[in-house]
Specification:
Blueprint: H1 2-10, E1 27-28, H2 33-38, E2 43-44, E3 47-52, H3 64-67, E4 73-77, H4 85-90, E5 98-101, H5 106-117, E6 122-128, H6 134-147, E7 150-155, E8 168-175, E9 178-186, E10 192-198
Parallel strand pairs: 3-7, 3-8, 4-5, 4-6, 6-7
Antiparallel strand pairs: 1-2, 8-9, 9-10
Length: about 230
């Protein structure tokens, strides 16, 4: 029996209570009051935050107030779309503060993320990676703690069955009034049921108008010029 328990603890499949278990890690405000309350003060100052979400539902937009608080380098690795530097400029970001890395292989993306995390030159690293082993997650978590940097790991929902050793795991789902958020795992706290995060006061363009069936924003009609 002891060997089985040792194996489960090694894989971080069981939770072991201790006097330190109730000590909350240092938090940083997300800039959204309801989200801060649900996260017991905000996001962890360092460590890995797993975000399970489909692309295009505002899964990056909700972190903009959080990202705008940081003064050091913010790194985007393999984002699932073209990055508009002009848009970031008008959001108040210095172009020298942003770095975008695109790789052809997932192993190269993991290497780049690890180097950025432990460099102590970065505040936040955002990595889009569909599959990750427990050993790889532990390496990234350790690098994040060593460099005092936060890693956002973006993955599609339900890509693998086992839980990764992360400081926080969130599942985001598109909602007609914003985003439904489920806290699946958090260090120093318990999982929570899904709650609706209304974005009407932050980004009205992500919220459906009354009577619409979804929160998909309709593109404006293109202007046609006479030849």
């Amino acid at each position: 029996m002891s060997k089985i328990i040792d194996l489960l603890q090694h894989r971080q499949w069981v939770w072991q209570g201790s006097s330190q278990a109730h000590q909350l890690p240092e938090r940083v405000s997300t800039g959204i009051s309801l989200l801060d309350i649900k996260l017991q003060g905000g996001l962890p100052k360092r460590g890995m935050v797993e975000v399970q979400a489909d692309n295009g539902i505002g899964e990056l937009q909700i972190w903009l107030p959080y990202l705008q608080q940081h003064q050091h380098l913010i790194v985007f690795i393999n984002p699932p779309g073209c990055v508009n530097a002009h848009h970031f400029y008008h959001l108040g970001f210095d172009h020298k503060q942003l770095m975008f890395i695109n790789t052809n292989a997932e192993v190269d993306a993991l290497w780049a993320a690890e180097q950025c995390l432990k460099s102590s030159a970065c505040s936040v690293v955002l990595l889009w990676q569909s599959a990750l082993s427990i050993a790889q997650a532990k390496r990234l978590q350790l690098a994040s703690e060593q460099g005092g940097c936060t890693l956002f790991l973006y993955r599609p929902k339900c890509v693998q069955q086992f839980s990764l050793p992360v400081a926080l795991c969130l599942q985001l789902t598109g909602h007609s009034h914003g985003i439904a958020v489920q806290i699946k795992k958090q260090r120093g706290g318990w999982p929570q049921k899904s709650f609706m995060l209304s974005l009407a006061d932050y980004w009205p363009q992500l919220v459906a108008e009354q009577g619409e069936a979804s929160n998909v924003t309709v593109f404006p009609t293109p202007i046609r010029y006479a030849k």
